[in-house]
Design goal:
Helix content is 12%, strand content 25%. The protein is an alpha+beta fold and 263 residues long. The strands form two sheets. A six-stranded antiparallel sheet has the order 1-2-3-10-5-8, with no helix packed on it. Strands 4, 6, 7, 9, 11 and 12 form a six-stranded antiparallel sheet that branches. Helix 2 crosses helix 3 (154-161). The two termini are 14 Å apart.
């Protein structure tokens, strides 16, 4: 990357205190501080999030459309989970002090603290990290679209998603009265611990396609989705539904990679 920074300028910045630049705060034990080029103009193609979590708290599912992310564990312990869009596998990587997990650009992922006082450093190869949050996707996609697309009861979809607040960042919400649990056939009702977070390989019905960028917040810059992967979306339950409803099957389309400019 070519630098056009005038290092002789009196406005050149070489230091910054992240403690005064909080992206999101749930409470005194769960918060995220942000450093980007708007805070430190000599950063060039680097930015970071300083993440503090207590046990069972989650950096919500999301993806960064403009950057890869390297998650380094400073203290405590966490599990970094991601979906590989080329294999549709849900993978889990436990990290402890000194260990890292790498999330390629545009991959759906989340982090769960498995110890109190967990401190993570997320480093990005972009001057300003951009993000599309799961809470924004769920709260902004119309319930009738989700119900129609996945053959669900619209009223039940609305009821299930009603508590989802945009820009959750760290979950569960402070007013949640239920303990966090893993949903799934093999892990119903189990607490999220490294022992039961084995890699899941049967995820043919998971799709990497995401929509609707989140609104701008705390310096995060929304933009169009960086790219669409070319694997077709598999729908194992679609055929019985079509037969029942006497609906003609729709063709499956693949999307070419679409590059967008980054300011």
């Amino acid at each position: 990357m070519t630098s056009y920074m005038d290092y002789t300028s009196p406005n050149t910045q070489f230091t910054f205190d992240l403690n005064g630049n909080t992206l999101f705060k749930k409470d005194d034990c769960n918060y995220i501080n942000l450093l980007g080029i708007k805070n430190l103009n000599t950063l060039e193609n680097t930015s970071l999030l300083d993440i503090f979590l207590s046990k069972s708290n989650v950096v919500e599912p999301h993806y960064h459309q403009n950057a890869a992310e390297l998650v380094y564990c400073i203290s405590g312990a966490a599990v970094v989970s991601l979906i590989n869009p080329f294999t549709n596998e849900l993978l889990h990587f436990p990290i402890s002090p000194g260990k890292v997990a790498n999330v390629p650009q545009g991959w759906w992922h989340y982090e769960i603290a498995t110890m109190d006082c967990t401190h993570l450093l997320a480093i990005f190869d972009a001057p300003t990290p951009e993000v599309i949050l799961g809470s924004d996707i769920l709260s902004k996609t119309p319930a009738n679209v989700l119900a129609h697309t996945y053959c669900l009861n619209e009223a039940l979809v609305k009821e299930a998603l009603a508590p989802v607040k945009p820009q959750t960042y760290i979950g569960p919400p402070a007013d949640c009265c239920k303990p966090p649990q893993v949903a799934g056939e093999n892990m119903k009702g189990t607490m999220m611990t490294p022992a039961n977070m084995a890699p899941v390989t049967d995820n043919a019905n998971m799709s990497p396609y995401m929509h609707q960028p989140a609104p701008q917040a705390f310096g995060y810059q929304p933009m169009a989705v960086h790219g669409y992967y070319t694997q077709p979306y598999t729908q194992p339950y679609a055929q019985p539904y079509r037969q029942q409803q006497n609906i003609q099957a729709y063709p499956v389309y693949t999307n070419a990679v679409h590059e967008t400019g980054i300011e």
